[in-house]
Amino acid sequence: MEVISDPLGWQEAMEAARRRGQQVGLVPTMGSLHAGHLSLVRRARADCDLVAVTNYVNPLQFGAGEDLEAYPRDLEADATMAASVGADVMFAPSVEEMWPVAPGTTVHVAGISDVLEGECRPGHLDGVATIVAKLLSLAGQCRAYFGEKDFQQLVVIRRMARDLSLPVCIVGCPIVRTTDGLALSSRNAYLSSDELDAAPSLYWSLLAGKRAIEDRGETDPAIVAKEMESELGRQPHFSLEYAAVVDPETLEVPVRAEAPVRLLIAARLGRARLIDNLAAAPPGASE
Amino acid sequence: MEVISDPLGWQEAMEAARRRGQQVGLVPTMGSLHAGHLSLVRRARADCDLVAVTNYVNPLQFGAGEDLEAYPRDLEADATMAASVGADVMFAPSVEEMWPVAPGTTVHVAGISDVLEGECRPGHLDGVATIVAKLLSLAGQCRAYFGEKDFQQLVVIRRMARDLSLPVCIVGCPIVRTTDGLALSSRNAYLSSDELDAAPSLYWSLLAGKRAIEDRGETDPAIVAKEMESELGRQPHFSLEYAAVVDPETLEVPVRAEAPVRLLIAARLGRARLIDNLAAAPPGASE
Known about the structure:
The structure is a homodimer. Chain A is α/β, with parallel strands linked by helices. Chain A has two domains: 2-173, HUPs (Rossmann fold); 186-280, 2-Layer Sandwich (Pantoate--beta-alanine Ligase, Chain: A,domain 2). Helix content of chain A is 37%, strand content 22%. The first copy, chain A, contains ten helices and ten strands. The first copy, chain A, has a six-stranded parallel beta sheet, sandwiched between helices. In chain A, helix 2 (35-47) links the parallel strand 2 (24-29) and strand 3. In chain A, helix 6 (124-139) packs across helix 7 (151-163) and helix 9 (201-214) runs antiparallel to helix 10 (221-233). The radius of gyration of chain A is 19 Å and the shape is globular. The A-B interface holds A 7, 11, 15, 99, 101, 103-112, 129-130, 133-134, 137-138, 140-141, 159-160, 162-167 and B 7, 11, 15, 99, 101, 103-112, 129-130, 133-134, 137-138, 140-141, 159-160, 162-167.
C-alpha cells in the first residue's frame, strides 16, 4: 500500500483513479486505527474500486488543554492494518504540508454544531467541518465513510456536504464494540485496567435509556436522560458531561420521544473523555 | 447557449465536459451582465474549452435593508449577452433549487473578511465565500474568473480556495471602466443622470491617492487616505464610507506604503453604494 504525504500528489492520485473509471472510497481518520476504522475500510473495499484512508491528526479540532500532543500516533502500524483489510493508498500529510500557512478559513454548521459536543468542546466541530471540507476537496468525487461513534460529527458532515453541494456520498457505518459493549475509540488507550473494566457502563446507560423508550414506552426525553444518568451514576469512576435524547437529524430535544431518536452520552473516565450513542425507537415507530 | 437551472444537471454537464478532456472556465456572476462581466467571459473563452457562466443573485450576501429585492434581474438579456461573447452554458438556478432547505453552513475567512466591506456590510463576505464554495463545488475542477472590481472579495475567495484546497485556479481580471473612469457595476443602474455625471469622482479620488504615492513619494497611508477623502469631498453628492491604503494580500494597513499597495474606496451616491479600487506602487517598488 502506497503512503502519500503530499496533498497535491494525493489529489492527483485520486483524480487519476477516477480517470481510470474507478469509484473512490474515502475513509478519513486521525490514525491510531482500531477495528472500528477497519470496519469502515472493509465497507469501502466492498463498495468501491480504490480505497483511500486519510491519516491526519487535525489540530483545528482540538481545543486548548485537550489531548493534541498526547493523541496516539503510529503511522507504520496504521499502514499495516489498513493494508491488511484492503486499503490501496494512505494519505498521511504533516501539519505543515496541509497548512503551509495557518488557515484563515473556517466552515461552521450552525445549530447542530452548537449543542452537545459543541457546548463541551467549543470550536471542535468547526475544526472537524473545516478539515473534512478540505480532505473531501482534495479527494474529489467519492464515497466517504464515517463511523456513527462520532454521531454528531456525522450529522454535521452530512449537512455541510449537502449545503455546499460537495460531490460526495457520505456513508455512516455502525459502531464497533468490544464484547462487553465498550465502543472502540483511540482514546480508550488512555484508560487504566480498572477504568477499562468500568468503561462499558457508558453503553449500559444508553441501553437503560433505550429500554425506557422501547420497553416501558417512556416518551419524556428528560425522564429518559435522567434514567441514563442514574445508570451511569452507579459507576463512580465516571463524571458525566451530558446524557441526551435528540432528533437524529436536527439534534434537537423533541417535546415527546414519539419518533425514532438518538441517545447520546459523554463522560470523563480518568484521563479520557468518552462519548457513545445508540438509536432508540418508541413502540410503533420504525428506526 | 444552453441555460441550466438544476444544480445536479449543471454538475453533470461540467463533469461530462471534463470527461471529454475539456478545461472548464467558470464565470460566477449575479447576472445583470455588463461589459465588465463580458471581459471575464472573453478571458475564459481565450483560456478554456468550455465556458460556463453562473447567474444567481445570492441572498446570503445581502444584509437586512440592502437591495436584494431591487437588484436588477434579466435572465434573457444576460443569456443573449453571454452567448454573444462565447459562453457555452449558463447556470441560472432559483433560490429554491440552490437551497431546498435553508443552509446551516457558513464559510468564514477570518481577518480579511472582517475589515472594510466586512465592517460596512456584516456577513456579506461570509455570504460570498459560502456561495462561491458551493458554486465551485458544483463546478468541480476549473479555472474561475473574478473581476478585481470586488477586490476584497477576490482576496477572500483566493484565500478560501487555498485554505480548503479547492481544485480551482482563481483568476483575477482587470476592472472595466467607462471612458470617464467609472468602474462598471450592476448597481450603476440605480444612479440618476446627475449622479452618473458625479460618479467618476470615485475613480479620481483613487487617482489622487495613486499620485500621492507614485509621484510625490508619500508613504504614510493615513495621509494618502486623507488625500483620497479630500478629493471625493469635492463632490458633495457622495457620502464616503471608507478610503483605505492596504496590503494587497492581507488587506492590512501597512505602517509605511513602501511596497505595492491597493487603494480601496467605498461611498454612497443616491440610492447606490459604490466601491472601486486601484493598485499603486511607491517609486522603486514594482507593482
